[in-house]
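Q: What changes when iron/sulfur cluster is included in the input?
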Amino acid sequence: MDANEIKQNIGTKEVNTWCPGCPNFLILESVKKAVAEMISKGKVRQEDFAITTDIGCHAKIFDYLNLSGIYGLHGRALPTGLGLCLGNPNLKVLSFMGDGAIYSEGAGHFFNIGRFNPNMVLIVHDNQSFSLTTGQPTPTSQQGYKSKAEPIGEVDVPINPIKVALGLGIGFIARCNARDFNHTAEILKKAINYNGFAFVEIIQDCLIFNKDINGKDKMMYKVEDNADMKKAYKIADEWDYNGKKGKIGLGVLYSVEKESLDEKWHALGKLKSEGVGWKGFDN
Ligand SMILES: Cc1ncc(C[n+]2csc(CCOP(=O)(O)OP(=O)(O)O)c2C)c(N)n1
Ligand code: SF4
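A: The predicted holo structure follows.
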């Protein structure tokens, strides 16, 4: 089967309930494209992928991907994904989270995952809003964002997830534009092939909530794959998530080799080399 036929199989027939035109459709396309192209090369099978999702608009991707996985609790897609990695180190685990999910409810898990360094990919749909619950500010919302929860406008300065990830020692850090789905698919393939924990932050508009921060495409530019930490901080500093001033670097902002969980933990590495999960479980 060629990549296009495989891509058809990775989709489902579920009725899609995202708002018409939501960039989540394009993130879905990128994931299907990346996974299908990898399968078409013959080195990995559809059943080698597993997904975990959070709760939120983004998390509905679970219903639209024909991949095994767990539709988890809000803020918990990362530990759920880590559990899958421990259960079967041969899986390629993709965890999908919103900016509210990962930088607020799930922040404690983000804090530690770079240290653990399991072989998995975190994909963040960052629309700078808690959208499923009708638009409350998240840690990446810009100051002044008015919502029913904060009618006077957000008073706190947003975090910069790229700088946070660098500070946490995450070995693969990338940023993408949801609308540029070919580029996102290329980055996702690199993230999936990375040996260790890969973080992919996708900038996404929400068409209904926090509309003031939408439409940043003109600020975006592509960077070459980078392994220099100082340069990565410099790129991260070019945009502070607090408005529409600055430049948004896209691509692999930082990638270095680090000992992965299965390399540190020999029992897990042994299972990986034997091509099995924990003994006693049906793989
Ligand atoms: C522990 C917990 N806290 C809060 C909620 C309510 N809740 C469900 S979805 C959601 C918003 C999700 O926002 P985000 O993760 O940014 O994703 P988006 O909807 O923007 O894609 C919230 C607050 C919940 N289900 N569980
Ligand atoms: S509310 Fe926003 S993020 Fe959610 S489906 Fe609609 S456009 Fe997409």
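Observations recorded in class: The mean pLDDT is 95.
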